[in-house]
């Protein structure tokens, strides 16, 4: 059966090798004998033509993390790697990861192709197919349940190839951008694999390939570049990932990425080797997650300010769970942004469902569509708040001034900007961040952000400004710098939990079957015999009866005796 599988893959231009998990580290190295396409697979189950997930990405990065996490969760995954050159880098998995995949019943299969082979002419002048790599993708992917595509790792792959180039290769490839080659190759491969997949998931950076962007110029430029590079290549390269997968796709956006895949040497928990006080990498200390709509109901675009950071491990975990359908609350074709915060424990399945449920409710409610209503900018839920007034005071006195003094806010020189924060309300549980603008050399309040704290959470809405100056209505457009404050509010909620000002929300766990009661046999207690005093134990006698001595015995006195001289010399000495 395995030999038949290898033979069929070889006919399609693929080479398969089954690897065991007996050694401590199993190196997965695609064969370099086939420059167009290579394949390597290992699995706890036999390979299937209907995998749960197909991942298309550059080497390493989110693609590798998503593939491994999908297999660890018990799913079958096929990972197609698009590299800049035929010598694809090695990939190593620990014996612990292989054992976890085998225990969960998951499987993982790898194939790879360099971007040049994917962008080669699909056929010659006579109509004969010449692009074996492109024609083999659809057959190798089969009918997956989900297709996941990402660009993460393209820049690192470009740098890796540049380090291995000889002077002649550098001169021949002058003006060729390998990163754009990889991106175009991923889009072409995604188009071939998207036809049979049931759902599509795209992982992009914040602000990348937004639906409102005009990508016509970028797309045409890419096609012309590849046509000139490959000598009359007429292959159609999709201009965006959404176009490649067919438009209907769920999008997960990330901020500045940190963390590394398991095959990278930077995946070690400690930095700089053994130390007395080791430094732990951020990928293990920033595991808490928050998910928000990319374009909120107030019109803010999340993550474009550059302050959002995302852990690659967390992004891979979220993507793999969406691909396997484990997040029941996630809606199709949703566009969300993921950010990471302080926390050493990775999110559980209940926490993932809670985050996506909150996002779905925010996108469904859309209070800004109602006329005269205040747009909800931010909402954070807590299980309890010991003192709402104390938390509001910390936000107004400690958190808000530090954010308003930051360069992103204080550097605004034109138009309105947030100036100060005050604590209001009868119980002191409201905070108003005031926007001011210079009009006719007079400072005018043009808008507000009202943050309200209660026993169950914290909510921020947009408010109106000075009605006497014509700013009494609530603006339908985001205020300048409002998106920065909204993103920082998520960090404020995380800090409030750390400082003990609020308690992390408790999620309902799955019910565990009740165990049968265990019957314990307890021996009957026997009364202990009465204790015997030391006086009774000593027996009869004058001391036992309480008698004392008649006279004190002399102690420490010693009778002095005179020694007689033994000789005449001794007598003379004494004299």
Task: Based on the model shown, name its key terms.
alpha/beta, five-stranded antiparallel β-sheet, about 575 residues, disordered N terminus, single chain
Task: Describe it.
This protein is 31% helix and 21% strand. The strands form five sheets. The chain has a nine-stranded mixed β-sheet with strand order 2-6-4-3-7-8-9-15-13, with helices on both faces. The chain has helices at residues 2-11, 61-72, 95-104, 115-118, 132-141, 154-164, 167-172, 178-193, 216-229, 241-245, 282-285, 312-324, 349-365, 388-404, 407-410, 482-498, 534-537, 568-574, and strands at 25-28, 37-43, 53-57, 76-83, 91-94, 107-114, 146-150, 199-205, 250-254, 256-258, 270-271, 279-280, 288-293, 309-311, 335-341, 376-381, 417-424, 430-439, 442-453, 457-463. Helix 5 packs across helix 8. The protein is an alpha/beta fold and 575 residues long. The chain is built from 18 helices and 20 strands. Helix 2 links the parallel strand 3 and strand 4 (76-83).
Number of strands: 20
Q: Label the structural class.
A: alpha/beta
Strand content: 15-25%
Shape: globular
Average pLDDT number: 76
Estimate the helix proportion, in percent.
25-40%
Q: What's the assembly state of these chains?
A: single chain
End-to-end distance: 124 Å
Number of distinct helices: 18
Instruction: Please mark out the parts with pLDDT under 50 across 5 or more consecutive residues, or reply none.
Output: 1-46, 214-225, 367-372
**Strand order of the biggest β-sheet:** 2-6-4-3-7-8-9-15-13
Radius of gyration: 37 Å
Largest sheet: 9 strands, mixed
């Amino acid at each position: 059966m395995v030999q038949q599988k290898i033979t069929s893959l070889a006919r399609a231009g693929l080479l398969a090798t089954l690897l065991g998990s007996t050694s401590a580290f199993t190196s997965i190295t695609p064969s370099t004998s086939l420059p167009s396409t290579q394949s390597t697979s290992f699995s706890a189950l036999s390979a299937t033509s209907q995998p749960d997930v197909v991942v298309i990405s550059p080497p390493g990065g989110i693609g590798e993390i998503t593939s491994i996490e999908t297999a660890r969760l018990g799913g079958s995954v096929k990972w197609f790697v698009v590299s800049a050159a035929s010598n694809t880098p090695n990939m190593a998995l620990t014996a612990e990861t292989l054992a976890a995949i085998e225990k969960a019943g998951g499987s993982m299969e790898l194939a790879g192709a360099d971007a040049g082979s994917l962008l080669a002419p699909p056929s010659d002048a006579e109509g004969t197919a010449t692009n074996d790599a492109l024609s083999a993708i659809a057959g190798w992917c089969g009918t997956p349940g989900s297709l996941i595509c990402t660009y993460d790792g393209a820049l690192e792959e470009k740098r890796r190839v540049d380090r291995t180039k000889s002077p002649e290769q550098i001169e021949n490839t002058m003006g060729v951008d390998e990163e754009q080659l990889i991106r175009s190759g991923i889009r072409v491969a995604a188009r071939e694999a998207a036809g049979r997949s049931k759902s599509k998931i795209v992982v992009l950076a914040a602000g990348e390939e937004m639906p409102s962007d005009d990508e016509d110029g970028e797309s045409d430029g890419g096609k012309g570049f590849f046509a000139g590079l490959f000598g009359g290549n007429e292959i159609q390269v999709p201009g965006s990932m959404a176009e490649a997968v067919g438009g209907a796709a769920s999008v997960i956006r990330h901020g500045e990425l940190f963390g590394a895949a398991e095959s990278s040497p930077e995946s070690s928990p400690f930095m700089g080797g053994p130390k007395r006080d080791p430094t732990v990498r951020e990928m293990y200390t920033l595991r808490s997650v928050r998910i928000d709509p990319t374009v909120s109901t107030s019109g803010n675009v999340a993550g474009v300010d550059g302050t959002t950071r995302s852990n690659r491990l967390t992004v891979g975990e979220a993507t793999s769970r969406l691909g396997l359908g484990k997040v029941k609350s996630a809606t199709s074709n949703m566009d969300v942004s993921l950010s990471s915060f302080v926390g050493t424990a990775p999110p559980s399945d209940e926490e993932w469902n809670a985050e996506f449920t909150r996002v779905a409710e925010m996108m469904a409610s859309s209070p800004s569509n109602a006329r005269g209503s205040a747009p909800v900018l931010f909402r954070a839920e807590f299980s309890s708040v010991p003192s709402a007034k104390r938390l509001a005071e910390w936000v107004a006195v400690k958190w808000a001034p530090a954010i308003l003094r930051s360069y992103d806010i204080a550097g605004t020189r034109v138009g309105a900007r947030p100036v100060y924060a005050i604590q209001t309300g009868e119980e002191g549980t409201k905070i108003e961040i005031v926007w001011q603008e210079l009009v006719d050399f007079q400072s005018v309040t043009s808008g507000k952000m009202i943050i309200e704290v209660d026993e169950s959470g914290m909510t921020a809405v947009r408010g109106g400004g000075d009605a006497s100056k014509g700013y009494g209505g609530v603006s339908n457009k985001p205020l300048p710098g409002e998106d920065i404050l909204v993103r920082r509010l998520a960090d404020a909620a995380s800090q409030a939990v750390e400082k003990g000002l609020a308690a992390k929300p408790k999620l309902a766990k799955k019910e565990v079957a009740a165990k049968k009661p265990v019957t314990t046999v307890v021996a009957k207690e026997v009364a202990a015999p009465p204790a015997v005093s030391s006086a009774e134990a000593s027996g009869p006698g004058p001391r036992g009866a309480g008698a004392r001595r008649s006279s004190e015995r002399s102690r420490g006195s010693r009778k002095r005796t005179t020694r007689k001289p033994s000789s005449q010399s001794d007598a003379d000495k004494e004299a």
